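Protocol step 6 of 9: fold each sequence in the batch and record its structure tokens directly after the sequence line. For illustration, a two-sequence batch is reproduced in full.

Sequence one:
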Amino acid sequence: MAQEHAARFFKAVQHDEALKQKLKATTDPESFIKIAEGRGYQFTVAELENAIAKLSPEELAAVINPGIAPRRHIVPR
């Protein structure tokens, strides 16, 4: 269930500019989790990492680099 919370949280982030900016300013997973908890999403760091692993490169770029067009090369070449 918590894994689903993490996945739903990422979908919510893609549609909320203020939330994107707030997450962009975080520097550690615990801060990220606290922001999610404030929005009603409950999950652990491990569940967060699993949800991140399931995102496509474009979806991950939308969360990490909000406002930037989807990127094809997130990992340095």
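Sequence two, same batch, same settings:
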Amino acid sequence: MFETLQAQPADKILALMAAYKEDPRDTKIDLGVGVYKNAAGVTPIMRAVKTAEKQLWEAETTKSYTGLAGEADFHDAMRGLVLNATVRAECVAAAATPGGTGAIRQGLELIQMASPDATIWLSAPTWPNHPSIIRYLGMKMAEYRYFDADTRGLDFNGMLTDLSSAKPGDVVLLHGCCHNPTGANLTSQQWQEVADLLLSKQLIPFVDIAYQGFGDGLEADAWGVRHLAKTQPEMLIGASCSKNFGVYRDRVGILMAVAQDAAKTALNQKTLAFLNRQNFSFPPDHGARVVTMILSDPVLKADWAAELEEVRAGMLKLRQKLSQQLRFRAKSDRFGFLAEHRGMFSRLGASPEQVEAMRKNHGIYMVGDSRMNIAGLNEASIPVLVDAVIEAGI
């Protein structure tokens, strides 16, 4: 049996991680991996997480299974974080998942069960795991224009034009904020126009919100998904706590199915529990319980939100400094988009050859399409990147 297996395409980011580790240069810079790092290059455990974990350790009395869909308290806490009071609780079915990736996978399987002929529309570009999972499941897929490689901004007219050709019942996968890999985001006005198009074309939104709090703040970053929840008959939301709570390895995610017709919620809830059972049975609970404790305790929540704001402001400061130094060195405003983008990522606009030259000559590691993790920079490494960019002729 095993002799019939074929090698699968290597994950480019994992390959980049391996190459970075093998590079002996002390001056090397990792801008590839999508993990937040502080100025010391460390992914810290947030203060509120540490406190909640200590409280949990002292109070926990069992490691028995949680429910198939996870704990209701976690559902409530995450619904509050992502949707606030946008929709009634009885309109939202939810299931805990192993990270945001698990939520995306479960959401796609739900779509496959409910509407196997639906096409999943993805932004061009998008997070590589989106098309990878869709292809693996054998689902139909199409792209809509999103990123303008020349301006490094949003091709909104192209987006609307392409989505206008989708058929009723198709699913549109949208990034809730901090678009990965480009950092270019929809404005509130554009979210409204997208919502109007989805409604008129009878398209189903599926929002991947993995970076809430990393862009313009916890409330602002959720504006788009909340507007859709208010205006669309039904939608799916996949949310991750990996970034904004820093619990990457604890795999904390949630899939929510929103239906304005609350009568559908009971069936949706049973279906989400069924899908969990088929894929991994019971979801992990430690990280989800920590997140629940933080969001349910006013003191812990305030401390968490304050530290998250420090992280957000720090990344924005790095963006502004990088943009300013490139403007000075290049004597051009062509890098102004770096200060305008939000979240951890931006596309620099370099060719694969230029990316390779920066790796070879300066030890700068970024994905071949020039997506870079802004959080991988610090005060000392920004001038190194600026020198590399100018030398490469980007």
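Proceed to step 7 once all outputs are recorded. Observation for sequence two: The radius of gyration is 21 Å.
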